Amino acid sequence: MPELTGTSHDDFATTHARLTAALVEQGFGVLTCIDLRATLHEKLGVEHEAHEILGVCNPQLAYQALTIDPDVALLLPCSVTLRDVGGATEVRVLDPERAFTLAAPATRSALEPLAREVRSRLEAVLTATVPDRVAT
């Protein structure tokens, strides 16, 4: 799966707070937060590590994409996950450049520069959240 990945040596709560602050610095907000641990416990009665799916959005960049092709809404918001991995926290970001290749062929070239900018900003978020990560 196309993604940007890093693992923080910090706990889930610390990494989550750092991620949220880095998103704000890059103009993103968290629109949705799905707490998989709580949902799986509630719906199935099973235990699961701390694991969240965040739907993040930079409104200005999203609006630009929507003016190019309203069907891009199917690809919004950008997905970010955090998962506890033995006391460390794995952070994954779906690569927007690859995700935007799912757009209609007629609009892909128009979306490329925008997708590149979104990826660059999300890479900056990931670097700020996991400072010692190696870019992928």
Describe this structure in words.
The structure is a single chain. With 136 residues, the chain is of the alpha+beta class. It has one domain: TATA-Binding Protein. The protein is 46% helix and 26% strand. A hairpin with a 2-residue loop joins β4 (78-85) and β5 (88-94).
Distance N terminus to C terminus?
A: 12 Å
CATH superfamily: TT1751-like domain
Order of helices and strands: EHEHEHEEHH
What percentage of amino acids are in beta strands? 25-35%
Q: Quick one: overall form?
A: globular
The helix fraction, in percent, is 40-55%
| Strand order, sheet with most strands | 1-5-4-3-2
Number of domains: 1
- Rg for CA atoms: 15 Å
Largest sheet: 5 strands, antiparallel
The helix/strand class is: alpha+beta
SSE blueprint:
Layout: E1 3-8, H1 12-25, E2 29-35, H2 36-44, E3 51-57, H3 59-68, E4 78-85, E5 88-94, H4 96-99, H5 105-129
Antiparallel strand pairs: 1-5, 2-3, 3-4, 4-5
Helix pairs in contact: 1-5, 3-5
Characteristic key phrases:
TATA-Binding Protein; 5 helices; alpha+beta; 136 residues; five-stranded antiparallel β-sheet
Please outline what is shown here.
The protein has 136 residues and is α+β, with helices and mostly antiparallel strands. The chain has helices at residues 12-25, 36-44, 59-68, 96-99, 105-129, and strands at residues 3-8, 29-35, 51-57, 78-85, 88-94.
